[in-house]
Amino acid sequence: MYNPKSSKAAEFIDDTEIRATLRYAEENRVNAALIDGILRKARERKGLDHREASVLLACALPEQNVALLGLAREIKQAFYGNRIVLFAPLYLSNYCINGCVYCPYQCHNKTIPRRKLSQPEIAREVAALQDMGHKRLALETGEHPLYNPLEYVLESLETIYSVKHRNGAIRRANVNIAATTVEAYRKLRDAGIGTYILFQETYHRETYEQLHPTGPKSDYAWHTEAMDRAMQGGVEDVGLGVLFGLKRYKYEFTALLMHAEHLEAAFGVGPHTVSVPRVKFADGVNPGDFKGALSDEAFAKVIACIRLAVPYTGMIISTREGAELRARALALGVSQLSGGSRTSVGGYAVGEEAAAAAQDTEQFEVSDHRTLDEVVRWLMELGYIPSFCTACYRQGRTGDRFMQLVKTNQIQNCCHSNALMTLEEFLLDYASPATRQLGERLIESEIGHIPLEKMRRLVQTHLVQIKAGERDFRV
Ligand code: SAM
């Protein structure tokens, strides 16, 4: 039976409740009175429950659909302003014992070269990422107890945080590794991870079992209950996600929101982020082989409805999507973007030989091939402030303390200031002349948008100090 507080996957992601919700949403897809009421509630910016949000996703009334997209833009602007946080994935190893059908790293794929980075290789990758301007990474590995045990991930985190190349530093390393134990999550927390990210792939149990036929990941409950264990292990920021394109997207959408509601009900704090990856071509993988393909139009609506349902939660889109769709997603609710990404093991290493060795280990085909500098410039041309901020996590503002900041709109003072200061660092250390010129003008005009006068003056002082060579200010 459906119970959002339960610790059992079958109860907080209850299939009967999902199906009942989808039926209710279908029955009400042209119910203008109900839909207008839900939109009114969304306008209060306190979120929607999975039933309400599912009705909006199903809504077939053109006028209400236009209103829905407009409201998502407004809410995005209200909570996140025009800041976009940037990060890059770092693939450590593609050894894997799971059989995930959609993933080229799965153990039955005998054509992909297997590779695991040594600590000196990781240090080189990190230096290359720092030279691009990155401050925030997402670590990725396959699941393999011999090649990639927890100790390897912990050692890699230590390496990553220790590299200081020129003015560079990785200030936040998020981790996307397979579901593990409370004890292991505690060790990850102690190693200073940012967000623990784990994509559910699909919430539909039968589909999940078909797509994960072998390996530890085949256990639906173990995977679905991972965030509970992470929170029990003291990881306060967790990131949810669905691999859209596998199963009917409306089912996944409803279940994803139920998962967020469960974390809120059981731990008093919802997910820190929601990712919206879509399945892509990869070695031996054709997205057309799965039944859940969704159009760009439907995908954009999913993003908007997530924004309305969980207005405080960050939303992430990767280079799986091209520039055009990413621009649309940013307007509708996405707050974090990867840039200059390589999805191969060792992909950032400089030199032709190293690049050739990495190429064949690619996890999926990237659709956005621009450099970080190009992405930064493009964001500014679209009117956004690219941010390399990692302050909240380093100030201990995680979990409910971060959410409190967002809910009380203090985010505008802190995040806006930190975004401008980290952008200044990027412009001075890594940007091309054209990007720098545009950025300096942007910072000049954006300083005035820091609400607190005292904060504004502090930021101005720090910007002068950054220009004089000092780094790493945060408020
Ligand atoms: N191995 C970890 C796990 O089991 O959760 C996660 C790391 S994996 C490198 C990161 C994510 O890439 C997966 O969770 C999956 O959603 C996504 N992925 C796998 N194959 C993909 C494909 N063909 N296209 C797009 N994304 C894919």
Query: What is the typical, i.e. mean, pLDDT?
Result: 95
What's the order of the H and E elements?
HHHHHEHEHEHEHHHEHEHEHEHHEHHHHH
| Strand content range | 5-15%
Count the helices. How many?
Answer: 21
Would you identify the regions where 5 or more consecutive residues have pLDDT less than 50? none
Categorize the overall geometry: globular
- How many strands, what sense, and barrel or not for the largest sheet? 8 strands, parallel, barrel
* Helix percent band: 40-55%
Distance between the termini: 46 Å
Bound molecules: S-adenosylmethionine
Radius of gyration: 21 Å
User: How many β-strand stretches?
Assistant: 9
User: Main sheet: which strands, in order across?
Assistant: 1-2-3-4-5-6-7-8
Q: What structural class is derived from the secondary structure elements?
A: alpha/beta
